[in-house]
C-alpha cells in the first residue's frame, strides 16, 4: 500500500465581471486539473459550472472542494471577486516536495 503525503500550493486571485466579459469561457472548455482544489470566496460571489451541466454559486465566506479531474469553469462573477485557493497534490510519503 502506497502512503501519500499532501503537497499544498496556496494562491489568491481577483476576478471581475469585466474580465469575464473580455474572456468568456469557450463553449466546451472546462478546467480538468490533476490536483484537488479548495476555494474560498473572500469577497463577492461566483458561479461555477460543471461538465455534468450542474452549477453552484459561492458567496462571501463559502467554500468548495473540487477533487482532482472535477471538470469545471467559472461561468459568472459579481463586480469583484477575491478568491483563496489551495491546490492539493498527493505526493508519495518521503517526497522532498515543500508543503507550500
Describe the model.
The protein is mainly beta and 100 residues long. It contains 1 helix and 7 strands; from the N terminus they run βαββββββ. The strands form 2 sheets. Strands 1-7-2-5 form a 4-stranded antiparallel β-sheet. A 3-stranded antiparallel β-sheet has the order 4-3-6, with no helix packed on it. Strand 3 (45-50) and strand 4 (55-59) form a beta hairpin. The longest helix is centred in the first third of the chain and has 6 residues, at 17-22. The mean pLDDT is 81.
In short:
By secondary structure, this protein is mainly beta. It contains 1 helix and 7 strands, in the order βαββββββ.
Poorly predicted parts: none
Q: Report the strand count.
A: 7
Q: How would you spell out the order of helices and strands?
A: EHEEEEEE
Task: Give the strand line-up of the largest sheet.
Answer: 1-7-2-5
Biggest sheet overview: 4 strands, antiparallel
Strand coverage percent: over 45%
| Helix-and-strand structural type | mainly beta
Overall 3D geometry? globular
